[in-house]
Amino acid sequence: MNQLNGADTVFVFVSTVLVLVMTPALALFYGGMVRKKNVLSTTVHSYAAIAIVSVQWVLFGYTLSFGNDIKGILGNLSFLGLKGVGFAPNSNYAATIPHEAFMMFQMMFAIITVALVSGSIAERMKSMAFILFIVLWTTIVYDPLAHWVWGVGGWIHTMGALDFAGGDVVHISSGVSGLVAALVLGSRRRKETVTPHNIPMTVLGAGLLLFGWYGFNAGSALAVNSVAFNAFITTNTSAAAAAIGWSTFEYIHRKKVTALGIASGLVAGLVAITPAAGFVSPMAAIIIGFIGGAICFSSVTFMKGKFGYDDALDAFGCHAVGGMWGGIATGIFASISINSSGANGLIHGNPKLVLIQIVAIVATIIYSAIMTFGIMKVVDKLIGIKVTKEEEQVGLDISEHGEEAYGGLN
Predict the structure, then answer these.
(1) Domain residues for 373?
(2) Other C-beta atoms within 10 Å of 2: how many?
(3) What percent of the chain shows pLDDT beyond 90?
(4) For residues 279 and 264, what is the distance between their CA atoms, to the nearest angstrom?
(5) How many Å apart are CA 351 and CA 323, to the nearest integer?
(6) Are 223 and 14 in contact (CB under 8 A)?
(7) For residues 350 and 337, is the Cβ–Cβ distance under 8 A?
(8) Domain containing 331 — which CATH number?
(9) Quick one: residue 82, left, alpha or beta (phi over 0 = left, psi -120 to 50 = alpha)?
(10) CA within 13 Å, CB half, 120
């Protein structure tokens, strides 16, 4: 029998607010890395995601993600317009908190995921094109993936893949989609000369992302229990280890440790632990974080340079690459001693879990890439996606929004 628990409800309520804070934090994190003439445009991407996805989720996004299963692919329209989503719990997802609380918590994940994509297309995509992209991408990519992985009856969920807080659903999907969008859009002109305009802003954004990520990961336990506190510890531990890992390899490569590198490493560690947070031990989190920081540094520093794609703010290098490693690491380190609802991984005698995790990762990559390519082509056909050479030169703050962030400074 379902019975509301006051402590669990307050915990998820606070976690929901923490996850919401992550999107303005992302606006700061991304905003500091672009040029002065594009900081408002970059900021608008995140706030547009808050506005648009909040309405989309209420109308039909939630039901497509968590409605009654249709052949493992999508939720049905049982919760259309939040019909039947009330204070009473839904035992399919969280038996001790209001259904409304679960719905709002999941909304915040949908919001930040499409906002993450904007990091790859910064400084050159039309604002109205990105607004249309938000609607289409959240509906066509995010909602089905959320059902596959977290929905009761979703095929990845049924297969036994583990994704505690969004390695596949949030990070791999957004990072891969960002790369595809960047490739379709094309590079910025003279991208080699672009430097961050306000690194303290980015560092502040990273700190606020860390703050919000405790709700993102620990809150995904949906109750005040040992799994939530384990996720709280592993989240902090992985972030710290990744900052050390990124900085170590940065020092080896450049003989310097940068503030931007520390902030980026912190985020890489948060990404890497996201799928694993409620399934692995703190000791495993050190390994996951340190390797995650090293891998993401290598992706951003070497792979991006080798292939020459313009992933402007490294959404692919941090989120997709970090999410892939985190998903595989979950298959290696997961333990039922941490979470009885999970599974044992490779080091606990179950190598099959690694294969299951890889299948889920590959499916997420393929689906996200194909759908995003189609969405970008449709948006381009309808209204065009890239600003003109002159508009890019002036800056998107003026050309797209008619305002300046710093009183006439270019």
Answers:
(1) 6-401
(2) 12
(3) 96
(4) 24
(5) 19
(6) no
(7) no
(8) 1.10.3430.10
(9) left
(10) 30
Yes or no: say if 30 and 118 are a contact pair by the CB < 8 Å rule.
yes
DSSP H helices, 299-388, are 304-307, 315, 321-333, 352-383
In a domain, 1, yes or no: no
Q: What is the pLDDT of residues 29-43, one digit of tens each?
A: 999 999 999 999 999
Please report whether residue 409 resides in a domain: no
89: left (phi over 0), alpha (psi -120 to 50) or beta: beta
HSE-CB of 322 using CA atoms within 13 angstroms: 36
Distance CA 240, CA 158 (A): 33
Residue 219 belongs to a domain? yes
Contacts 24+ apart (CB under 8 A), 397-405: 397/37, 397/38, 397/39, 397/40, 397/41, 398/37, 400/41, 400/126, 400/127, 401/40, 401/41, 401/44, 401/127, 403/40, 404/37, 404/40, 405/36, 405/39, 405/40
Length of the chain: 410
How many CB atoms sit inside 10 A of residue 138's CB? 24
What's this model's pTM, rounded to 2 decimal places?
A: 0.96
For residue 410, the model assigns a pLDDT of: 47
Give dist(CA 410, CA 402) in Å, integer.
14
- For residue 182, is pLDDT > 80? yes
Q: Is residue 406 part of a domain?
A: no
Beta-carbon count within 10 A of 88 CB: 12
- pLDDT (0 to 100) of residue 305: 87
Q: E strand or H helix at 202, and its extent?
A: helix 199-218
DSSP state for residue 118 in the 8-state scheme: T
Predicted confidence band at 150 (pLDDT cuts at 50, 70, 90)? Answer: very high
CB atoms near residue 130 (< 10 Å): 25
Number of domains in the chain: 1
C-alpha–C-alpha distance, residues 11 and 18, integer Å: 11
